[in-house]
Structures are given as C-alpha cells and as structure tokens.
Design goal:
The longest helix is centred in the N-terminal third of the chain and has 22 residues. This protein starts with 5 loop residues before the first strand and ends with a helix. It has a six-stranded mixed β-sheet with strand order 1-5-6-4-3-2, sandwiched between helices. It has a single domain, classed as Neutral Protease, domain 2. A hairpin with a 5-residue loop joins strand 5 and strand 6. About 50% of the residues lie in helices and about 10% in strands. The chain is of the alpha/beta class. It contains eleven helices and six strands. Helix 4 packs across helix 5.
Amino acid sequence: MKNNIIIWFFGFCLFSNSIFANHLAVSCDDLKCDEPLSQKLIQNGVKYETSKAIIWVEKGSLTQEEIHQFGTLVEQGITNIEKFLKNNLDVKKSSGRKLQYFVSPKIDVSHVYYKDLKGLYDPKLFMPSQRVKDHNAPYLHETAHILAGDNSEWFSEGFASYIESYVSENMGGYSAHIFDLDGNKGIDEQAAKAIRTKAGKAAIQLIGDNEKTLSLSSNDQTLRAAAYVLYQSAVKFLIKNVSLEKTMQIYREKGTEKSFNEVTNHTLEEWKTKWIQHLTTGNK
C-alpha cells in the first residue's frame, strides 16, 4: 500500500462459504503491538535459521518438525521468488539481509511491516501459527511484498497474489488461496463473476487509483475479497499483454500514469478498459 508500512491479508475467499483459520477481529493492528511481540519471540521463542531467513516461533505453538517444514518452504519460496523477479528485486532487499518471520498464535492475520517504529527499513513478516500448522499461511504472498517492494494497494496486492499463484503452480510451495479459488489460471473467471456484483462494482473503482485503499478496519469482507480478486486479475492481464519485465518497470515507477504511457504507449485508463472488456467478453 502506498505510504503505508503494513499490509493485511484477511482470511476470506470470494464466492466460497468456507472461512479459514484467521479471525474476523484483529486484536493487535499496528506496529506498536507487533514490535513487543517480535522482541518477545526473539528473546524467548524458537529460532530456526536458513541461508535466506530467520524464523522466530512461539514455544509450544509448532512442533520441531513443523518448524523445519515451514523453514524449508520459506527458503524455497524466497529462492523461487527471487528467480521469478530476476533482476527486479527491491533494491533495499538486495543488500543481502535475511528476512525475519514471526510465528505465533497471538497473530490473528498474516501481515508485513516494511519499517520499524523509527521509520527505518526493517521488514518483518507475521504469520498465525495455526495457518502455518494447517499449511495455508500466505507466506509466498507476504514474501513477495518484501522482495518486489511497496506500491499502491491495487498494484502491490495484485502483484503479490500473482506471484504467489505463479510460484506455487510452476516452481514449488503452496498457495494459501485466501481469496483466489484456483490461482492465476482461474482468476479471470472469478473476476468476471465478481465484477457483476455490488462489491465488485465498488472494488473496481480502486483499480488504477494509486491513492485509494481499502479501509483496514472495514468489516466488509465481501468488498475486500472482490478487490483482491480484481487486483490479481488486472495484474495478470498486464503481465500477459506487456510482459513481466515491462510490468516490473511500471511497478518500480509506482504505477504512475507517466510510467504506463512511457512503457506501453497506452494510458492506465486504456489498459483498465481493455481488461474490463476482456472479463466481460468471456476472457477471449
């Protein structure tokens, strides 16, 4: 999200009656809560370290085997996302620092912070231990946020969701499928259904707007689910039609109108119109 240091990933799936392990209520929703928790886990938790990550787990929340399995997934996921992004890694991450993951039952919703309380770049990824245990933690999605870098909400969330699906489908690991039902291959069909709903019609106004975001305190999970599905579909359409490299070029420029014009010779609004036509004409 633009100018925000936190990204929440809520546990609801569009057009599905299933509700995942995450809670509706977020008991701690800002960095002032997460900083003490991360320090407590560093001091008293179980540490698992790989060549690319350090994972801090609350004692008793996972078995040693579960910690090892998650650590292996995280290491593989970072490696695969780096390969996917090639030379397009966020410059701050490319310094070689290890990513830090914090796993605890006290965490309700998976999320990422880019900065600490002093405003310094210090990325941290927070995961509910139950999701890790159940193999539906969005670790690829959250890792993609850090490795690709921050952006406007629609672009950042859509790209992270696209990466999560692509990597799990083609390179290894798993997708949490929190909002998408069938990854990138089914996202356009899902988006075509969403766009006809009240929530979808509201959510589509966020696509291409680099200032608007979903309210973190909103209880409208139908709107949130529709938005995330549409975000992913829009990014998939852009990558398919202009290439990953050019999409990343636009992404590095924060998805500005100028970057769309310079890289694609089309305005952002023209791309949005083409994408909507793609959805409403049967994805042809």
